[in-house]
## 1
Amino acid sequence: MTDGPFEVDRLWPEPASGLDLTRAFLELELPDPPADRPWVGLNMVSSLDGRAQRDGTSDGLGGRADRRLMRLLRTAYDAVMCGAGTLRAGDLWTTVPEGLADEREAVGKPPQPLAVLVGGTEPIPTDRRWFTTDQPRLVLVGSGGPTELPASEVLRAPTWRPEPRWILATLHQRGIERVLLEGGPHLNAAFHAAGLIDELYWTVGPLMLGGDGLTMVAPGPENPREARLISVHRSGEELYLRYRFGSR
């Protein structure tokens, strides 16, 4: 199965039809990161009724164009981060394909983004593809978490569970300017509660699920934040929404 080509319609701003998905999203215009931490983008897919999980994972919520978009977004970021719960729920990897790796190298980036895994104190399954990909890996765990994991650097946080500000400070010290968060809902909730999500890439798939699956941000303390709509694209029945928080 190939990655395309895929066509999208831009609904806003400046409506246009039949655009190439890669050309539309390969070169994202992102602001400079804050002085003291990386810029944080959140990429998620949900059903029409806002569910980010179906049978415990996001599988089946988005189509092939959404999977291509996910890889295009990764190309613009220095690191791709997910929570250990997402790794436990299913196999995943955070690489970009060869052609996009070449695009990264052409602008002076490493061919693959840094893969970042955030856990607490629970065991982390090491039989996942995440531990076998050809990319650097950093695992951030809680103060009582595991310290030896295959082909990975492991750092323990000073708290029971790594706090978002500590995570970003750690990445900032390593020269990471932009990190793409890919869930799950509990890690998203921690970053939202801390006010540390700068941009949201939200794919709305054409399914109405019902049930009690988690939304893209798990229940937690209320922290209303108003976002500015940057763009809206469509591929078939899927919508790709891009929002930005703050004044940038």
## 2
Amino acid sequence: MGHKMKLWLRSLMFNLAFYCGSTAMCFLLLWSLLLPYRALLSVVHLWLRQIAWMERDIAGITYQVIGRENIPAGACIIAAKHQSAWETMKLFLLFDNPAIVLKKELLNVPLWGQYLRRSGAIPIDRTAGRKALIGMMEAAHKAVEQGRKVIIFPQGTRLPPDADRPYKSGVAALYHDLNVPVVPMALNSGLFWPKGSFIKHPGKVTIEFLPPIPAGLSREAMMTQLRDRLETATKRLVAEARQKQALLP
């Protein structure tokens, strides 16, 4: 059997397991929405670990995390690259109880949206202008008071590894208002689970947490550091992964 056929069959098996399994679990775990928050998180963590198992044993996708020592113990902002659905299913495993800034429309997804609501996510209505920003700030302040990590995708959406898109103002507003450090989170997941792609490519995803940008800088200085460091690290991770892929038989 040729390499392309094996890749297609492996991707088919993973997609069936992932999408059918996720749909089934959304129904089977509806009772967990009635649990106390920490108990609900335990259920979510269990399911996300099962997804990681499917990625590893069916799709052949593993991952490594570099730079955990750069994550402060308390509240901070995690400014993450967003290339794939893959990282959205790792955030609760990486941070236990994060407050993820996401588009409000996701809360209206049948069943899945109910889990997002209970997870303590920070929804933002991108059509509401300044009102949306005020709502985001109020929720982010509450999360920081609880010592949680506030996670935001500075470019606002999933992008292919080589895409160049401006950073939005939301991360600068959070930085200015919350007065906590920003930890850049680089990754190369888009090479293995590309946006909108049926095919899942085996290999090792790398997440790298860069040294935190301290609180107290100007918005412009923080954004310059964030953009330069995050883009440089991401390009390096993508180039390294591509080089390894080129060496595979």
## 3
Amino acid sequence: MKKQTTENTPCSDYHNLTSYQRGKMLMHFLDWENQPSVFKTYPGAERIPLPRDVRHREDSLSIVLKSQTPIKKHRYPDMADLSKIFALTCGITGKGGHEGAVHYYRSVASAGALYPTEIYVCTSGAQGLDDGLYHFSIAHHALTLLRKGDVSAHVADAVRPTLHKAPNLTFFLSAIFFRSAWKYKERSYRYHLMDTGHLLENLVVALKAQKFPFEFSFDFDDHTLNRFLGLDETKEVCLAVCYMPGEQPVKGMNTEEEIADLSESAKNASIVSQKETDYPAVLEIHEQGLHETARSNVELPTIDPVDLKSEKPIDVTGPEIWPEKLNYEGTFLHRRSKRNYVPKSITHTHLASLVQALSMKDRGACSDALDYQNTVRTGLIVENAQGIDPGFYLLIETKGSLGRVNSGYFLDIMTHICLDQKWLANAAVHFVFLTDIEILDRYYGARGYRYAMMVSGRLGERLYLAATAMGLGCCGIGAFYDSEASQLLGLTSTSRLLYLVAIGPVKSI
């Protein structure tokens, strides 16, 4: 392990505070009487139904991700487009039950199926829908109007003051704190960010599938956007923005005049349980990241979490055609956390396809935005993949290759580290997302923690989708003994494991 010195910083303080240690975890019994609702509603507000019977394209997921065809820059979205986008991003895809309780499956992954992330949309020129701010009601597949009229000037001012053309659509992704905190307590901010990254990835893929241009950002005026969305910042906060660039000049309200507050009942819609417990560490780390990173050319040094061997990297260049069994729509509808792994190997083509999925860069990334994806490095613990010796590897994205860190069998040890969740040992590969906490703090301040955790969520969701398309099982893990994971992987003293995603063949149903 490299020797480095670092002083305590907001990122490291929070991460260390919320790190699990073997033998020191307090018993935590879930208060089932106060289980948070996973559906946000605005009582008494009118809902505008979105059409449910809409046709999707038949392309495969890989074609959607790789497509370089011209995007529709000048077409305004209509209600059918909105329906498709929301259905694929976070729509209900099925339901199950246990002991009388009904559980609804969604197209997006979420830690503990607690779904802290909500999604709002601001429209400007959408066909068949008045301009305004809406909340997407997942339970009803409908939109609830929160603000009526052209408010694009306020949106542009908060998201990007230099934006002179009104976005056709602007999506806001928020997290309701108590939903995840009910189970994960102080550690829950990790899951708020990770789950927001999951949902953002689905949204980006849905926009690509409809051939709409998009840009997204984790940087904006937090207080202004939270107020615009009508949020009580002690309970729910905006974490990401994604918008569809438009062609019309920004117009509407004078941004020098403060926009009116939404009603108290709108703010209270963030209350999801009769008795909610606040965890100060969550609000503290979020507030420490309120300062927006400057948009100047911030060059983040390469995240180097381990010492790579000097031997020649192993080529895992992705194939032109992935071995997919589902088209992209079927992939979203059938995405589940499947962990009934069988101890069988995955093919080299499967592994190369997964690596290719992770290595793709966003076509829609803002030209003057930070390259958020550089805040995270990907490692692979390989045990049962054709053509790859067992060991721990670091992914070299630019070359589509793996650099070996250590040889050996590590899945059983990692399973023990992941709170002894035995099913992990039968997976073929563990993908691990890593960062350097000291570098994040030095270059981005506490907001850098948001970047890395949401990027980890995006990459994890991309693995979920790619694995599902190819008929493989996939399940993400955010719970592990942090220091033991660092020791096993041989991370530098300032580097940390953020997220683990296990993939492998599963039993046929």
